Amino acid sequence: MVNTYIVDVVILSQSCDIAHNKIDSLIVCPVWPFKKLIEANPYYKSSRARESLRQGKEPAYHLLNQYKSDKITFQYSIVDFHRIYSLPKLFKKNSSGKRS
Predict the structure, then answer these.
(1) Fewer Cβ close by (within 10 Å): the C or N end of the chain?
(2) What is the pLDDT of residue 7?
């Protein structure tokens, strides 16, 4: 039996390489709700730490702004560069666009 998980990721592979079938694998990093980062590391509760994230001074993380439209809502999130993965490109075709 294989365990499967649904996770949010950012694709780091070049879009032109994906579009022109120049690669077989995608490089991805997980995206976590900002609240999860605070739970894991209380340092990020401080305004100083949040400002450091906002300014891009935390090399292991990237802060994604919140977003809301009629079709989708994103809360403040963190791209976690501590964890970089490679997935078969076919994986993207089977799972993209499935977010509520």
Answers:
(1) N
(2) 85
